[in-house]
Design the sequence.
């Protein structure tokens, strides 16, 4: 199947693997189906502007709550990712170099029409592009500043696979928050993120803060992918050393049986322990619950980060 010179595949490297059953969901991980009027309005507006959202593409369990609050995470650079991470439900394939020229304006118009206080802009990996898609991030930031000046902006970027100058392009556009997810601990990177490298993701976050110390930096991980509890704490230390302000921790949920199975369901008590330890280690903010995702309550979290910074400076 082709579309705009793109080739879509659904995780081709997993096609011949057997199904990977996961344990049944515990009561604390269940969510209600979306039914509100606001959810419908958000869905309609996103469709009208031909935008993709990570809420839909990644099968996020919080879509009902977030869209009912008229909060959505826009996924730019199309819907086809050049990588195939073992946990991710986004379509894998060959995008063919296509970039929608109207994407920045449509993103900004959606932010304005929804009246967003805070927008999260993320993307698929685009290793086919010379800058990894960095310029499109910058254009979206600039357009939101123009059409929705009261909206604060958070970007959740890929690692750009070391493409020279890519990070600098994004940081120069001055997002309010720069987010790049580590996703998991270093030991299982080859299995979980075969196209990425732990040290490179860490260095990206470190470099972002060095380029502009006024930008909040943020990263997220999932638990239940096969990591051990004791491996979480060195990861926290690495992020603190990289001067990361905010850490999110959430439960991995298997999108389909073709994806890596859930190793275990982490209890709410253990998530609370991670939050306490993370704050003790020096993060300004830690969001750690079973349903936490990178952009979940991102508007409230950004307001809290600003408040904490103002208190510190005052």
Sequence:
């Amino acid at each position: 199947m082709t579309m705009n010179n793109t080739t879509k595949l659904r995780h081709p490297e997993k096609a011949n693997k057997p199904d990977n059953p996961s344990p049944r969901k515990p009561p604390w991980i269940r969510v209600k189906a979306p039914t509100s009027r606001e959810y419908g309005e958000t869905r309609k507006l996103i469709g009208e502007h031909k935008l993709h959202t990570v809420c839909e593409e990644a099968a996020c369990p919080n879509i009902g709550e977030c869209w009912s609050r008229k909060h959505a995470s826009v996924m730019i650079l199309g819907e086809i990712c050049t990588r195939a991470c073992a946990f991710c439900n986004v379509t894998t394939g060959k995008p063919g170099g296509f970039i929608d020229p109207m994407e920045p304006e449509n993103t900004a118009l959606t932010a304005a029409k929804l009246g967003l206080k805070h927008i999260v802009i993320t993307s698929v990996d685009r290793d086919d592009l010379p800058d990894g898609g960095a310029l499109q991030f910058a254009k979206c930031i600039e357009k939101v500043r123009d059409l929705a000046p009261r909206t604060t902006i958070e970007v959740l970027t890929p690692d750009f696979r070391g493409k020279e100058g890519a990070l600098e392009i994004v940081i120069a556009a001055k997002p309010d928050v720069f987010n790049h997810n580590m996703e998991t601990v270093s030991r299982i990177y080859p299995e979980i993120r075969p196209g990425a490298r732990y040290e490179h993701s860490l260095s990206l976050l470190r470099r972002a803060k060095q380029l502009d110390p006024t930008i909040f930096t943020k990263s997220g991980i999932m638990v239940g992918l096969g990591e051990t509890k004791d491996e979480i704490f060195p990861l926290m230390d690495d992020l603190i050393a990289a001067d990361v302000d905010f850490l999110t921790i959430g439960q991995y949920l298997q999108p389909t049986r073709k994806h890596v199975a859930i190793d275990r369901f982490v209890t709410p008590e253990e998530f609370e322990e991670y939050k306490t330890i993370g704050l003790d280690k020096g993060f300004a903010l830690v969001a750690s619950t079973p349903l936490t995702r990178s952009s979940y309550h991102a508007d409230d979290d950004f307001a809290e980060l600003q408040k904490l910074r103002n208190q510190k400076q005052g």
